[in-house]
Design a protein that fits this description.
181 residues; alpha+beta; Alpha-Beta Plaits; nine-stranded mixed β-sheet; two-stranded antiparallel sheet; 11 strands; 14% helix; 33% strand
Length: 181
């Protein structure tokens, strides 16, 4: 049986267990030995991070185009129109390669925990939320995609990886699952 940990990673936490600079890491939250992140979330992103003690499970969870699409909730600057959403859905060229197609839908502002520090706000520039479902995970992909269509990401929360979600999992809290190998 493989161990699977669902962790709601707070903003500012590194997706590793050590840091020579003394920044907050997974060790500050998860006291379980021999589990490792299946993928990563940038320090300035929040939300669902999966950790496991099983290499085959980690590989399955992170395989591009696999059974585990990732759902991100992105608060973006401005109000993306249908054309911007269509461009995001069809794929954006990043580093000379087009991203895989994605599902992009407007999202009502979700009821989330407060972020510390709060995102910057501008009185005359509105923000909106998008649900973006990806089947690949390139470096800072959502942020780079939304910026490419003129709507920079201000806050990014990974809500789901396949069937695993943040439902009922507060920021900074983890929950263990046992998965048949």
């Amino acid at each position: 049986m493989a161990q699977l940990i669902l962790f709601n990673k707070p903003y500012g936490v590194l997706t590793r267990f050590t840091d020579p600079h003394g920044r907050s890491t997974l060790k500050d939250y998860i006291p379980i030995p021999h589990v490792y992140p299946a993928g990563r979330l940038d320090r300035d992103s929040e939300g669902l991070l999966l950790l496991t003690d099983d290499g085959a499970l980690a590989s399955a969870l992170t395989r591009p185009g696999g059974r585990f699409p990732k759902v991100y909730w992105a608060q973006v600057e401005g109000l993306p129109d249908e054309a911007a959403c269509a461009r995001l859905s069809e794929g954006i060229v990043l580093d000379g390669r087009k991203t895989r197609t994605a599902r992009v839908e407007p999202l009502p502002e979700p009821a989330l925990w407060p972020r510390e520090p709060p995102i910057r706000t501008r009185r005359h520039i509105p923000t909106s939320w998008l649900a973006i479902t990806l089947s690949e995970g390139r470096n800072r992909q959502v942020r780079r995609m939304t910026a490419a269509v003129g709507h920079p990401t201000l806050r990014l929360v990974r809500y789901a990886v396949g069937p695993y979600t943040l439902a009922d999992l507060p920021s900074g809290i983890w929950r263990a699952h046992t998965v048949a190998a």
